[in-house]
């Protein structure tokens, strides 16, 4: 029996629907939400939602067409499993408000973990105005198809789709999967799908026949034609859901009623049961065209394509309802379609390039595909990189439908409307954080944690707080999208990123308090674990006994070289700009980084890598050598030093370096091009061949190289290996004899507890400019003495400089000539 409050609310909805029905249907666009189950970010083909990547094995041509005609989101987020995403999507509230955090319960950990998850909801609370109820109140005819999963548990029948705003419910229950995807014959000629799906879908349970195959219409070309081998075989629930949705839309079109279709496919959730024609297709494809990214599960591939076909059948109908090829009856320009998935891919697929999978709070568990399509209203073929999340759907559909939002005092909404963004306004959303809270366990995939993603100073950070050991972790998703390096895994790292952590931790705590988060209980003490405390005050003090090395790679914040008059007032032998330092990292990827160096002086923070993970770090400065003689160059060469190889042993690869010259007319001209082939032996690189073509500045250049006014810049690096490379010192041979410019490259590399090395090249060292310096900056303590020492063999150490610490950071500028006549020097900083 309905509660009085819910009965009154439903009465008001009916009154609102009667009033809204007096408006023409065309004034309210049809709304179609297509929700995949467990479809990963990388599972779709076409590249629109995946930065040009996507699966090399699964085929989703209808999703690709949807994206080519609509707006794709590369940074769409969900919760890491089914129910919290659906509850948030249908209520407009984060799980902290609905208390729907996990499938089943919050104590699904292995063994006896130290914390006990609190009680939670499995259903959307009955007092919430659901998305369907809101749209029904705006005059829409509403229908749910497929998986619901957020009703029928502790809330009973009152929380099932037919009692939460849907006029029709086909296949939605408390179940998280259909049990079996196949219809079964219970009596001769009588077919049904079973209790998990419900009897409403049984009218479409009959086996495939020729008439069905003849009427089967997908959208993308070439349209899929199911083979005759399907005739007489049991119907797959994925097809039956599309059958029911097509009939519903046709009924509403005939009645001229605006409709809301919530098409929540059970696909691609387990059990892994794909239609046999598609399974056979991928079995064959695996033999002749295997996946290079691990997408080799052929039954899962069949499920993915079957989901795509169900989407394509709905879109084919919306474009041409009667299928006669004449679009005069099209519903497309009056229909918004949203395609989305409820979490990342599970262990049947691979979520490259992201780390992790369904159930985890890594990007592989949270990132999902999202496409919006509405011809004439949403610009076609647009890729949008704005971070969006499931709670944004509720206010978005409300605005587009002209529906009334719930009272914010009774049901505050957590999302933002994307309506203006969908219509092409690129800066429609304010800067904000995206939040998750999980106070329990999910086997080995998740422990109690809270998570925030937000941009600070142009960098996208992910902050996590783990309740078991009450600690923070921080990842820079801009520089490290695969989440390989916790930036604050040490006190040194925490000190270096103190500003970001204090900002983000305060933001996370404020959100947890505002949305009513609940917390686990300590099993041993019986006490509720406290919420995360924001970090305040100054950074941690990094100290050690006198005479011990306390400064290592994580403590160095930035480095650059100085050549010539510049902001640091260091004297140089050459006039002109100071050299430029830059660095970046990558892991298991091919990257072309253009414009690393130019003629401007800059000091850029260096991305350092703790514990030497398999990562490529570039620190290059081959730029701004002033030419020592007028005229056109006849040759140019550079030296490169490979430091360590961390890729796949025995894997061949190629590096490309392009070096150019900037002449006084400010025109950039190619100087040389170099390609090096190598094989990674696991710890060192074996150079198979190295070639360098010196092209010189063409004689047709508008201006020749002029002494003191022409500069060399290092323009492009392409790499496809793991390891670390140093770009060294550059020379050239102008007419009249050789000339060597000053030292231009310094690379710092080290690890925890070890001295860090300043590696540089000079040929010979006597040609190093006395005006070239290395600057080190670090977090220091007042009145402490810091001594910088150098060594060429890690055994004998010499003092270079001494400085007294300050209350924040200290720095030293070291002439590289002081490092001696060696090509390599180790540095260590000692606090006393």
Which keywords apply here?
alpha+beta; disordered N terminus; Arylsulfatase, C-terminal domain; 3 domains; 832 residues; 6-stranded antiparallel β-sheet; 39 strands
Count of helical stretches: 14
Reading off the top of the CATH hierarchy, the class of the largest domain is best stated as Alpha Beta
CATH topology of the largest domain: Alkaline Phosphatase, subunit A
Apparent shape: globular
Structural account:
18% of the residues lie in helices and 26% in strands. By secondary structure, the chain is of the alpha+beta class. It folds into three domains: 395 residues, Alkaline Phosphatase, subunit A (3-Layer(aba) Sandwich), CATH 3.40.720; 91 residues, Arylsulfatase, C-terminal domain (2-Layer Sandwich); 283 residues, no CATH class. Strands 1, 2, 5, 6, 9, 10, 11, 12 and 13 form a nine-stranded mixed β-sheet that branches. Strands 20, 33, 34, 36, 37 and 39 form a six-stranded antiparallel β-sheet that branches. Strand 27 and strand 28 form a beta hairpin. The longest helix is centred in the middle third of the chain and has 22 residues.
């Amino acid at each position: 029996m309905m509660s009085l409050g819910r009965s009154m609310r439903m009465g008001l909805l009916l009154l609102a629907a009667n009033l809204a029905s007096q408006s023409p249907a065309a004034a309210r666009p049809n709304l179609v939400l297509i929700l995949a189950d467990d479809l990963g970010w990388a599972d779709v083909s076409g590249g629109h939602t995946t930065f040009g990547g996507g699966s090399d094995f699964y085929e989703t041509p209808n999703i690709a067409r949807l994206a080519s005609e609509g707006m794709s989101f590369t940074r769409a987020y969900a919760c890491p499993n089914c129910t919290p995403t659906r509850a948030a999507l249908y209520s407009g509230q984060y799980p902290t408000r609905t208390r729907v955090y996990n499938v089943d319960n919050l104590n699904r950990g292995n063994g006896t973990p130290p914390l006990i998850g609190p009680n939670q909801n499995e259903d959307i609370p009955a007092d919430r105005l659901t998305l369907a109820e809101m749209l029904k109140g705006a005059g829409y005819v509403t229908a749910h198809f497929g998986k619901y999963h957020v009703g029928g548990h502790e809330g009973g029948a009152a929380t099932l789709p037919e009692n939460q705003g849907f006029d029709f419910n086909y296949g939605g229950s408390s179940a998280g999967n259909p049990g079996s995807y196949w219809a079964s014959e219970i009596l001769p000629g009588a077919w049904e799908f079973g209790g998990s799906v419900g009897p409403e879908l049984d009218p479409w349970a009959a086996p495939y026949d020729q008439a069905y195959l003849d009427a089967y219409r997908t959208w993308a070309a070439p349209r899929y034609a199911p083979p005759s081998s399907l005739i007489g075989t049991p119907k797959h629930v994925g097809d039956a859901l599309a059958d029911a949705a097509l009939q519903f839309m046709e009924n509403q079109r005939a009645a001229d009623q605006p409709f809301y279709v919530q098409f929540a496919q059970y696909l691609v959730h387990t059990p892994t049961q794909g239609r046999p024609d598609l399974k056979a297709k991928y079995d064959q494809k695996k033999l002749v065209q295997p996946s290079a990214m691990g997408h080799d599960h052929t039954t899962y591939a069949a499920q993915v394509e079957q989901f795509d076909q169900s989407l394509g059948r709905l879109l084919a109908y919306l474009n041409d309802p009667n299928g006669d090829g004449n679009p005069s009856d099209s519903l497309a320009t009056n229909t918004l379609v949203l395609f989305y998935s409820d979490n990342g891919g599970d262990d049947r697929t691979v979520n490259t390039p992201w780390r992790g999978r369904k159930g985890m709070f890594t990007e592989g568990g949270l990132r999902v595909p999202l496409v919006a399509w509405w011809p004439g209203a949403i610009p076609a073929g647009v890729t949008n990189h704005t971070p969006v999340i499931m709670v944004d759907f509720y206010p978005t559909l409300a605005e587009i439908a002209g529906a009334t939002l719930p009272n914010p005092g009774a049901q505050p909404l957590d999302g933002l409307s994307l309506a203006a963004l969908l219509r092409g306004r690129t800066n429609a959303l304010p800067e904000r954080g995206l939040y998750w809270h999980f106070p329990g366990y999910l086997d080995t995939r998740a422990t109690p944690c809270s998570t925030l993603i937000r941009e600070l100073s142009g960098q996208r950070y992910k902050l996590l707080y783990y309740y078991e050991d009450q600690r923070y972790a921080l990842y820079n998703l801009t520089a490290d999208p695969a989440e390989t390096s916790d930036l604050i895994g040490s006190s040194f790292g925490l000190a270096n990123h103190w500003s970001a952590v204090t900002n983000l931790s305060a933001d996370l705590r404020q959100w947890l308090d505002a949305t009513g988060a609940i917390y686990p209980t300590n099993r041993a003490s019986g006490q509720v674990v406290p919420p995360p405390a924001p970090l305040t005050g100054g950074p941690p003090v990094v100290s050690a006994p006198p005479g011990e090395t306390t400064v290592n790679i994580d403590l160095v914040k930035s480095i650059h070289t100085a050549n010539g008059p510049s902001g640091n007032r260091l004297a140089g032998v050459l006039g002109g700009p100071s050299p430029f330092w830059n660095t970046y990292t990558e892991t298991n990827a091919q990257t072309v980084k253009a414009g690393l160096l130019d003629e401007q002086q800059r000091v850029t923070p260096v991305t350092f890598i703790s514990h030497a993970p398999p990562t490529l770090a570039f620190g290059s400065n081959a730029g701004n050598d002033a030419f020592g003689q007028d005229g056109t160059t006849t040759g140019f060469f550079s030296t490169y030093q490979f430091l360590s190889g961390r890729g796949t042993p025995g894997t061949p690869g190629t590096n490309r370096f392009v070096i150019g010259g900037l002449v006084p007319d400010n025109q950039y001209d190619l100087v040389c091009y170099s390609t090096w082939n190598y094989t990674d032996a696991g710890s060192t690189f074996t150079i198979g061949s190295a070639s360098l073509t010196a092209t010189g500045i063409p004689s047709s250049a508008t201006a020749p190289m002029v002494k003191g006014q022409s500069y060399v810049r290092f323009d492009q690096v392409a790499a496809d290996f793991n390891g670390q490379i140093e770009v060294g010192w550059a020379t050239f041979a102008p007419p009249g004899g050789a000339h060597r410019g000053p030292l231009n490259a310094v690379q710092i590399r080290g690890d925890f507890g070890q001295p860090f090395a300043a590696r540089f090249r000079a040929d010979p060292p006597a040609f190093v400019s006395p005006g070239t310096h290395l600057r080190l900056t670090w977090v220091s303590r007042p009145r402490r003495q810091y001594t910088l020492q150098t060594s060429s063999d890690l055994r004998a150490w010499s003092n270079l400089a001494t400085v007294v610490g300050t209350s924040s950071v200290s720095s030293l500028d070291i002439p590289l000539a002081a490092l001696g006549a060696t090509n390599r020097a180790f540095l260590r900083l000692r606090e006393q």
